[in-house]
Amino acid sequence: MPPILALFLLLLAAITPAHAVESDGDPVATADPDYVAGKKAIEARDWKAAIGSFSAAERRVPDNADIQNYLGFAHRNAGRLDIALRHYQRALKLDPRHRGAHEYIGEAYLMMKDLGKAEEHLAALDRICLLPCSEYSDLKAKIAAYKKR
């Protein structure tokens, strides 16, 4: 492999996010014990514990887009779409380029059978992602599957 290509691939790997949910992260929030516990609860698919932990973190760091996105994700998976939408919208108000929030609110809109809104967030991801990003690919695949039904 030519050295310039190897360097490009190394740089690409370094700037491509490994996790779809977070943005660049807020060091205050990510050091919060409830934030850490909430992430572990998400990994364990324990939506009630995730909601409790991220709600506690939110009380200390209310203006963190990642916390809002995680709260939306947990509420959506717990079947509370109306609450999930409020958290996703808050995340996007705090960080309009938050890829995870755009992907997940798009998925929530699909669950609500609102294809138009889901496609709006896919278009936003298309504008945001300068390089291919998993959030765009994931939402695009879910929209395609939705259309096949």
Describe the structure.
By secondary structure, this protein is mainly α. The chain has one domain: Tetratricopeptide repeat domain (Serine Threonine Protein Phosphatase 5, Tetratricopeptide repeat, Alpha Horseshoe). Helix content is 74%, strand content 0%. The longest helix has 15 residues, at 134-148.
Order of helices and strands: HHHHHHHHH
Total domains, how many?
A: 1
Radius of gyration: 16 Å
Described by the principal axes of the CA atoms, the overall outline is: globular
Q: What structural keywords apply?
A:
disordered N terminus; globular; mainly alpha; 9 helices; 149 residues; 74% helix; Serine Threonine Protein Phosphatase 5, Tetratricopeptide repeat
Layout of secondary structure:
Elements: H1 3-15, H2 27-30, H3 33-43, H4 47-60, H5 65-77, H6 81-94, H7 99-111, H8 115-128, H9 134-148
Helix pairs in contact: 3-4, 4-5, 5-6, 5-7, 6-7, 7-8, 7-9, 8-9
Write a short abstract of this structure.
The chain contains nine helices and no strands. It has helices spanning 3-15, 27-30, 33-43, 47-60, 65-77, 81-94, 99-111, 115-128, 134-148. The protein is globular and about 40 Å long.
